[in-house]
Amino acid sequence: MITVRAAAKVNLRLAVGPPRADGFHPLLTIYQAISLYDDVTVSEADAWSVTVEPTGDLDCSGAPLDESNIAVRAGRLLGGHHGIERAAAIRIAKGIPVAGGLAGGSADAAASLVALDRLWELDTSDEDLLRLAAQLGSDVPFALLGGTALGTGRGEVVEPIEDPGTWWWVVVPNATGMSTPEVYREFDRLNPDLGSHVHLRVHDMTGVLRARDFRLLGRNLENDLQAAALSLRPDLDQTDTDLFELGAYRLLSGSGPTFLGLVETQERAHEVRQQMMDRGYRGIQVATGPVAGAHLVKYI
Ligand code: C5P
Questions:
Q1: What is the pTM of this model?
Q2: Which of 62, 135, 250, 258 is most buried, judging by how many CB atoms fall within 10 Å of its CB?
Q3: Atom 3 (ligand 1): residue with closest C-alpha?
Q4: Interval 217-238: pLDDT, tens
Q5: Cα 103-201-148 angle, rounded to 5 deg
Q6: How many A from CA of 232 to the centre of ligand 1?
C-alpha cells in the first residue's frame, strides 16, 4: 500500500489567448502549489475501484466513483505505456475542493501516476511521467512538479521558477462548482477579437516573487478567466467584495469558483478566515505556498 500526496494549485497569473485549432487555449501562466492536499492511496487489486472520502467538511459528491475517475484513467494510461494490464484499488482522501478551480482532479491524477509507478515497480522516467501527465489534463504536469512554475502551451509545458517567499492564502470555496470548458466558452464570447499573441511579462513576475513583498505580488495577481467566470456567476462578486473589505488581495483560482485572498502573514490569514466565517462563509481554509508536487508520504 502506497500513499502519495498532491497539492492544489493557484494561477498567480493566467494569460489566455484565442482558441487553437484543437479547441484548447494557449496559456501563459504562473502556477503555485498551495498547501491543500489530496492523499491518494493505492493497493494491489484484481479490478479497478475508487473511493473518495473528505478530510474535514468538504463536499466530495461531485467526484466520480467509477472508472471515469481521473485517478483510474491515470493508472490505465501508465499500465498501457508499459504494456501491462494491471488494476488497483484507489482511495482518495480529499482536502482539495471538487470543481473549484484548484486542480484537485489533476492532483489526483498526478498522485495516482506516482503511487502506481511505485506499487508496480515500473521506474518510469520523469520525462515519461510528465508526458503521460500532459495526456491526462493541462494541469497534471504541474501537479507532479509543484513549487512555482511557468506554464505554457495549454498549461502542460512546465518549467520551475524561483519563488523564495512564503505566501499566505485564504481559500474561499463555493458550494456550486463550475465547468472549466464553460468558462473558456464564456471567455471566447467576451473576447471575440483577441489577437493571437498571449501577453505576460514572465520576467517581471520572477522579479515580483523574488521581492517577497505581498503587496507587490497582490498588485500583480491577474486572471484572464475572472471576468468570464464572474459573468457566468455574478454572485461571486460578493466574495470578491468581502475579501477586499477585509484587506486581502483577491484572485479567482483558475476557472473558479474558488476565490483566494492573499494576506501578509499566517496570523492575518486566520483572522480573515474567521471574519469571512462571521460573514456567513463556510469551508474556508488557510493555505501557504509554494509547496512540493506529488510525493510519497506512506509506504507499507
Ligand atoms: O486539460 P483539461 O482536461 O484540464 O481541460 C479541460 C477543458 O478546459 C478542455 O476540454 C477545454 O475545453 C478547456 N481548456 C482550454 N484551454 C486550456 C485548458 C483547458 O480551452 N489551455
A1: 0.96
A2: 258
A3: 137
A4: 999 999 999 999 999 999 999 9
A5: 35
A6: 17
